[in-house]
């Protein structure tokens, strides 16, 4: 990932969603790396400081919220934005996400265009 | 006297040969069908791999010149089944323009008429899949044809129909969904949580149907209505909720009504909710504590504070934790409780420790 392109880490165990998010963000000019679960996301974050992390909440093993908690305890990842992309759409789920430290929350099924708008807005980027 | 059985060697040999050939035939059959299946799967993977970029282009809304869409709609007829399965899987994950484009792929392969025929199939799995496919295609005009399946004898079909209607999102299906809710402890009918999901997703008109359902003779239906009022939420239902709270006898429904009032009520409801926080049924009491927190006004502190001294551990702890969420005044009140001997010491100490732990995890003060 070069410093010219904002970098994004995507963690989702659903290959359709993962491929779709990667495709959409790459088309928009982001440098994207994708992983299949929470543990892989934490491993990737050991040697990567992305501008944004897109996390699925329900993943096998470590959930997205677990990963988010870990991210928020790491000084090195202090300014990293986190967007939760999840099927859990109840008010309490959304509250949990924000209370854990998420910067934004998108529910599935989702509009890839809306996702891109949110990502651009979080990274302060016009399209 | 011993009996001697004589089998002719020719017969024995013949039987053995038959057995050997039968074994070889069965082995060949198993291997053949397995190889065939593996080959088919390989071909399907190959085909889907070839079409994957087109699928992603359509699903991401990047197919401005519609060339990817044309690629998906023009696959050979014998391949449409495989493609449609993958398109359906993707369709359940996206909404907006990409969903409309993916539905166009299914329509071009004749899935719409296939699904409409399937609604009256004798096989439950076919009926369920047909309803789900129509739901995925989000065709409003199909809603009326799916509705009768809410009364199907198979619960799988009922659930698939409700979820299909949820995807279509037409509020006109609200009344049939309410009618399909299963009575408690009955295996047939629509499970409450699926009904809640549907009624929370439908567009208007839903409010009138939900408010009407708060007086339904079946407690399971009243419970669904109360949950929807709080979750959707429906602020216009507040007067009805206040009225129903006074009359409701089913504890689960009462708890849901109380919780709903927390989401749609205001300062005038604090006294009523504080009274319900002392309710002998703990589920109702806990719901009232949550509601007081949800209202989230400064005056909620005064309503919650006396509940920390409740002799029941769960309501008192929940009230104490709720106070930590109500700003500095709530936490100050807890510190007072923690140093004044009495029943409030333990829940107050617990809540303050919990807040300290959470703050440490979040890296806050």
UniProtKB/TrEMBL annotation, chain A:
GO CC aspect terms: cytosol; protein-DNA complex
PROSITE patterns: RESPONSE_REGULATORY
GO molecular function: kinase activity; phosphorelay response regulator activity; transcription cis-regulatory region binding
GO process terms (BP): regulation of DNA-templated transcription
Keywords: DNA-binding, Kinase, Phosphoprotein, Transcription, Transcription regulation, Transferase, Two-component regulatory system
InterPro entries, sorted: CheY-like_superfamily, Sig_transdc_resp-reg_receiver, WalR-like
Origin: domain of life: Bacteria
Residue span(s) of domain Response regulatory: 7-123
Location of 4-aspartylphosphate modifications: 56
PANTHER family hit by this protein: REGULATOR OF RPOS, TWO-COMPONENT RESPONSE REGULATOR ORR33
Protein name per the record: Histidine kinase
Organism whose genome encodes this protein: Kocuria marina
UniProtKB/TrEMBL annotation, chain B:
Entries under Gene3D superfamilies matching the protein: Leucine-rich Repeat Variant
Name of the featured protein: HEAT repeat-containing protein
Assigned keywords, A-Z: Membrane, Transmembrane, Transmembrane helix
Matches recorded under SUPFAM superfamilies: ARM repeat
Cytoplasm found in the keyword field: no
Listed transmembrane segments: 12-33
SMART domains: EZ_HEAT
InterPro entries, per database record: ARM-like, ARM-type_fold, PBS_lyase_HEAT
């Amino acid at each position: 990932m070069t410093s010219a392109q904002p970098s994004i880490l995507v963690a989702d165990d659903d290959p359709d969603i993962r491929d779709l998010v990667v495709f959409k963000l790459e088309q928009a000019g982001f440098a994207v790396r994708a992983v299949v679960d929470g543990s892989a996301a934490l491993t990737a974050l050991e040697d990567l400081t992305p501008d944004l992390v897109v996390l699925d909440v329900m993943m096998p093993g470590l959930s997205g919220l677990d990963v988010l908690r870990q991210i928020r305890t790491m000084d090195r990842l202090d300014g990293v934005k986190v967007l939760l992309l999840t099927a859990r759409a109840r008010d309490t789920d959304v509250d949990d996400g924000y209370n854990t430290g998420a910067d934004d929350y998108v529910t599935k099924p989702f509009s890839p265009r809306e996702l891109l708008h949110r990502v651009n807005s979080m990274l302060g980027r016009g399209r | 006297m011993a009996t001697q059985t004589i089998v002719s060697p020719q017969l024995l040999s013949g039987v053995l040969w038959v057995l050997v050939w039968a074994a070889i035939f069965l082995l060949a059959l198993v291997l053949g069908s397995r190889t065939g299946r593996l080959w088919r799967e390989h071909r399907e993977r190959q085909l889907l791999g070839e079409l994957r970029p087109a699928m992603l282009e359509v699903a991401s809304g990047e197919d401005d010149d519609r060339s990817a869409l044309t690629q998906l709609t023009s696959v050979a007829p014998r391949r449409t089944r495989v493609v449609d399965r993958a398109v359906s899987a993707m369709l359940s994950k996206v909404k907006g323009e990409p969903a409309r484009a993916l539905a166009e792929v299914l329509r071009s392969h004749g899935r719409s008429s296939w699904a409409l025929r399937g609604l009256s199939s004798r096989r439950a799995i076919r009926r369920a899949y047909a309803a789900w496919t129509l739901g995925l295609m989000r065709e409003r005009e199909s809603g009326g044809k799916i509705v009768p399946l809410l009364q199907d004898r198979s619960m799988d079909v009922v659930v698939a129909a409700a979820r299909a209607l949820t995807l279509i999102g037409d509020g006109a299906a609200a009344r049939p969904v309410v009618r399909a809710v299963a009575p408690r402890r009955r295996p047939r009918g629509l499970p409450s949580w699926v009904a809640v999901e549907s009624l929370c997703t439908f567009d208007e008109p839903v409010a009138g149907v939900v408010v009407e359902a708060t007086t339904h003779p079946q407690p399971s239906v009243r419970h669904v209505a109360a949950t929807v009022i709080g979750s959707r939420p429906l602020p216009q239902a507040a007067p009805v909720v206040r009225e129903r709270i006074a009359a409701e006898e089913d504890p689960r429904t009462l708890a849901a009504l109380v919780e709903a009032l927390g989401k749609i009520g205001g300062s005038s409801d604090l006294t009523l909710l504080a009274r319900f926080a002392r309710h002998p049924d703990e589920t109702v009491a806990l719901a009232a504590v949550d509601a007081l927190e949800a209202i989230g006004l400064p005056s909620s502190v005064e309503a919650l504070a006396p509940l920390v001294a409740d002799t029941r551990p769960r309501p008192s702890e929940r009230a104490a934790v709720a106070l930590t969420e109500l700003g500095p005044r709530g936490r100050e009140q807890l510190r007072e409780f923690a140093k004044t001997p009495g029943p409030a010491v333990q829940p107050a100490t617990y809540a303050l420790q919990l807040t300290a732990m959470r703050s440490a995890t979040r890296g806050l003060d």
